[in-house]
Amino acid sequence: QVQLVESGGGLVQPGESLRLSCAASGSIRHFDVMAWYRQAPGKQRELVANIVGGTSQNYADSVKGRFIISRDNAKNMVYLQMNNLKPDDTAVYYCLARVSIVQGTDYWGQGTQVTVSS
């Protein structure tokens, strides 16, 4: 009933930027929590950034000052602006949506590959 589709990944050089998008569709039209996770080869999936409620944002220390998470006016999409990308940012990036910060099902997208390499 809920589908999340990520887009915007690709291959970039260090220092360049990408903007990831996640479109939500289905029976649930509002999520209080939307987030971006990433998983690099051989590593566990980790939280990159989330946005809770209207605008409250949280970022992993490794991306603070470089990444910005935002939502569109209808709150059915979430974006991740990634600036000054570094090789360590290389991973599959996943979108997550949850109805409530305290309970509810986690809905995941299929992931989009981001590769940062010279």
Structural notes for this entry:
The mean pLDDT is 93. Strands 2, 4, 5, 6, 9, 10 and 11 form a seven-stranded mixed beta sheet that branches. Strands 1-3-8-7 form a four-stranded antiparallel beta sheet, with no helix packed on it. The chain has 118 residues and is mostly beta strands. Strand 7 (67-71) and strand 8 (77-82) form a beta hairpin. It is 0% helix and 53% strand. The radius of gyration is 14 Å and the shape is globular.
Short précis:
The chain contains no helices and eleven strands.
How far apart the termini lie comes to 40 Å
How many β-strands, per DSSP? 11
> Total number of helical segments?
0
What structural category arises from helix and sheet content?
mainly beta
Give helix and strand order, one letter per element, not per position. Answer: EEEEEEEEEEE
Characterize the overall form: globular
Mean pLDDT: 93
Percent strand:
over 45%
Poorly predicted tracts of residues: none
Q: State the helical fraction.
A: under 10%
What is the radius of gyration computed over CA atoms, rounded to a whole number of angstroms? 14 Å
Largest sheet: 7 strands, mixed
Kindly list the characteristics that best describe this protein.
seven-stranded mixed β-sheet, mainly beta, 118 residues, single chain, 0% helix, four-stranded antiparallel β-sheet
Summarize the topology.
Blueprint (H helix, E strand, L loop, with lengths): L1 E6 L2 E3 L5 E9 L6 E7 L6 E7 L3 E4 L7 E5 L5 E6 L8 E8 L8 E2 L3 E5 L2
